[in-house]
Every structure is written in structure tokens, then in C-alpha cells.
Amino acid sequence: MAERADARHRVVIVGAGFGGLFAAKALRKAPVDITLINGTSYHLFQPLLYQVATGILSEGEIAPPIREILKRQDNVDVRLGWVDDVDVEAKTVSASALGIDYTVPYDSLIVAAGASQSYFGNDDFAEYAPGMKSIDDALELRARIFGAFELADLATDPAEIERWLTFVVVGAGPTGVEMAGQIAELAHRTLHGQYRHIDPRKARVLLVDALPAVLNTFGDELSTRALRQLHLLGVEVELESKVVGVDRTGIEVETPRGRERIESMTKIWAAGVAAPALSRKLADAAGASVDRAGRLEVNPDTTVPGHPEIYAIGDMMSLDRLPGVAQVAIQSGRHAAGQIKRRLAGKETGQPFTYFDKGSMATISRFSAVASVGRLRLSGFIGWLMWLAVHLLYLVGFKNRLTAVLHWFVSFIGTGRSERVSTVQQAFARAAMREYGEPVVAGRAGERAGERAAGPAAGRETEPAGRAPESIGSPTAQETAAR
Ligand SMILES: Cc1cc2nc3c(=O)[nH]c(=O)nc-3n(C[C@H](O)[C@H](O)[C@H](O)COP(=O)(O)OP(=O)(O)OC[C@H]3O[C@@H](n4cnc5c(N)ncnc54)[C@H](O)[C@@H]3O)c2cc1C
Predict the structure, then answer these.
(1) Can you tell me the distance from the alpha carbon of 65 to that of 55, in angstroms, rounded to the nearest whole number?
(2) Cα distances (Å, whole numbers) of residue 338 to 165, 284, 331, 352
(3) Ligand 1 center to residue 395 CA distance, Å?
(4) CATH class, range 9-39+81-115+275-344
(5) Which CATH class is domain 123-271+359-407?
(6) How far is the C-alpha of 15 from the C-alpha of 45, rounded, in Å?
(7) Catalytic amino acids?
(8) Atom 53 of ligand 1, nearest CA residue
(9) For a substitution probing ligand 1, which of 325, 331, 395 has the most ligand atoms within 8 Å of its CB?
(10) What is the largest CA-CA distance in the chain?
(11) 59-109: per-residue pLDDT in tens?
């Protein structure tokens, strides 16, 4: 491949999630100029989003600024922007941020745009059952969850109180299990004794899944242990139950007993992922294919067919049925960086990406987790210690690790939750975006409105006209948010 003689090799990386960030770090000492373009100004540690949604951690602890992480890496230029097009002939990417459009040329391109939420063709469910993919999602869920207890306390009709105190989590994978477990702990432990008109311990937490097991990919043994621990926490698990309808006040489910309705004001969607729109765009531009989930089908070395200079990695790549987990993204990011370094060193490239499975884990409640590492199957406290160690290792930044540990101390040893503040803007965001449009977030055309660009302007756009920010304690606010 012809290199420009006059300048250093230009690498553009799209996405600063696990894949993009680790690729950039792996190129630290390489003779390249990197432009790292990300739709938000922060790197998001998605595995802990549920802790933001349930008031354990602050959003800052799981979303450090990309610039700060890479400030000592001189060969990286971090740019805010949503990449909406790749010109594979001209070798440029086009991006936009808050109404500013720009184009960046590349010699090598690494695309690591992750995945977005899938409602399996029922996108209207999103209005009443937010997903868990972004900081916006987590803050909105936090507002809805804590707001539900406030409104239950104000309600006088027993049926209404029950509706506010019923929480339905759809999807019994790791995210759903963690979410259900944390809401149960919140209701039964943290909030106990804080309300005068309701008993939060009477809250119902339901976990619904169409499959016959929780944590389906963890195998029978851990799945059974997780189910037992969920039952001990008081979570009602409805398996082989398919959600067929979601509305403001409840959810319709096809269960083995027949079609049933669950009255609930707070629904959380933790099922299904789909590739971002950029995946199909890039595939079309490069003449490549996507799989059923829209993920780009790559060569064994993670390059896009016909384009040895373009790598698609992480959640958005389809290769050997690898799962959409952080380790696949990290390792494929490092692999792509390694291939670029080899090429620049004049070495042979095209080595296939080999994934080293370090195992998987999910927490169920404080001091209780399940972990599968090689042949080892751990659960309970030992599983939880392992979970703690791994999350501390991969949380980015010493400061974040320190404050996360403090907050875990508050929540797990004590009974508190350090982050219970919610604002009307957070609860209203989705409805307001729908009503007023997304004038400044233009870069994600074709995608569901989930993650928003960072920056004060984006926040301002979410505030409904004529309403001053106020506490979520207002019934009008929460009722409207839940609508
Ligand atoms: C709630 C939740 C819990 C999870 N728990 C676990 C867990 O416990 N263990 C585990 O291993 N995995 C877990 N995962 C999966 C894991 O987070 C992903 O596999 C991993 O983040 C994938 O990394 P990535 O770099 O491919 O994508 P991401 O980390 O999603 O990063 C993609 C980045 O690209 C940016 N981006 C997207 N589109 C564009 C664009 N067009 N232009 C510019 N920037 C763009 C995004 O802003 C984002 O920063 C979880 C995921 C979720 C959502």
C-alpha cells in the first residue's frame, strides 16, 4: 500500500469505547498521528451503567473525559463528533458535532462504534421502557426509579400505589439481572424506613425473559445459582415470557400460562442489541456485508473485505460468533493497532484475530455475584470479590477507582446510596427530544435517540419550554415522564 512520503501515517479511530480507546493506547509509541473521534467527550464504562441508574455511582465515575485519559499521549488528537460517513475511495471520514461539520483524512481507519439498543422491531416500546446504553438512559432511569417511590408515597388509591411500586426489567442477561437485583436491594434495604405512607419493602421487582433461563450464556450451573439468589432477594422471575406490548401503565406478556398484563409505571429494557447505523453505511460503502444484527462481517484479521486499511472491531464486528463483550473489544482494538504497527515496520500483516476468553461475571446483589472463568464456576461472596477486582482493574483512572470504592462502601457496607439526585430535565429528556426534535445532534441519522452529544447545548435542548428545573418529587413531572 502506497504511503505518503511527506508525512506520518494517519490513523483515524471512530469511537472511544473499549475498542477504540485500547487501540489508541496500543499505538502510543507508534510513528503515527491519530485522530480519535467520539460522539461524546467521555469514555463510557457501560458495565456499571446500572449502578448510575440505581444511585450507587455518579455518572462521572464511569465516564471519564477522553482528553484526560489520553493527555500524556502526544500522538492523539481527540475530536468530538458523530461520524456519519466514510468515503472509502477518498479515504476520509465525515463527522459533525453540534452543527459543525468536518472531514478527516486517513491512511488507516479503525471503526469501533459499538452497538445500540434493539427493541426487536418494537421501537415504540422505548418511550415507556428506556434501555441501558448511555448516560442519558441511566439518568432517566434513575429519575424514574426514585420518582416512582415518591409518587407511590403521594398516591392514595391502592391500585395506583401498587403500579408505582411495581418495577419490570425486561431481559435476564447480566444487565437485567444486575438491574433487578439492585432495585430489589434499593426497595428492601436502602429505602426502608424513609417513607411515612408506603412501605418500600412491598415493592415488586419482576424480571422477564423469553428464554427459559436467567444468564443464559453462563451455563446451567451458574444460571441456577443466580436464579436462587434472585429469589432470595425477592425478585420475581418470569421465564419463557415474551413481552408483546408496553404502554404507560403496564406491560403485556405472553407467558406459558397465557397472555397477562402487569400493571407497572416503571419498565426497563435490558434486552437486545443492534449494530449502529454506521456499520451498514460502512458495509455499503466498502461492498461488505452485515449479519442479522447489522454487524459488519469482517475478515479474520478484523479488516473490512477488500479494504486492508479499514478495521471494524468490538461490538460492531461480526466474526466467529464472538460475543459483544468488553474483552472482545479491547483485544480486537489491540489487534488492529498491532497490525498497523506491523505494516509500518514492513512486516507481513493479515494475522487472524484470536480471542482469549477471560470469563464472564454478573453481580446479583451486594456481596453476591456469579463468575465463570475457564473451568471455574464461582458464586456468592467469592464471585463478588472477583467482580470487584476486575471492575477496579478496568475502571479508567485512579481518581475514579478511589471514589467508586468509597461509594461502594456507602452502598454495600452501609445502607445509603450516594447519588439519589434526579432532575425534571432528566426525567423529561426523552419526551422533550421527541417533541422538539434533536436539532444539534444530527450525526446519528437513522439511529434511535439514545446517547446524546455532550455539551451544554445538548442539555438545554432537553428542557421543555416554560418549565423551570425542579425536583422529581413533583407528581406532574414524574407522571408526565412515565407517559
Ligand atoms: C448496560 C451494559 C452492561 C454491560 N456489561 C458488560 C459486562 O459486565 N462485561 C462485559 O464484558 N461487557 C459488558 N457490556 C458490553 C460492553 O460494554 C461492550 O461489549 C463494549 O463496550 C464494546 O466496546 P466497543 O468499543 O465496541 O463499543 P462501545 O464501548 O459501545 O464504544 C463505542 C463508542 O463509539 C462512539 N460512537 C458510536 N457511534 C459513533 C459515531 N458514528 N461517531 C463517533 N462515535 C461513535 C460511542 O459514543 C462510544 O463511545 C455491557 C454493555 C452494556 C450496555
Answers:
(1) 21
(2) 51, 26, 10, 11
(3) 14
(4) alpha beta
(5) alpha beta
(6) 13
(7) 178
(8) 133
(9) 325
(10) 76
(11) 999 999 999 999 999 999 999 999 999 999 999 999 999 899 999 999 999
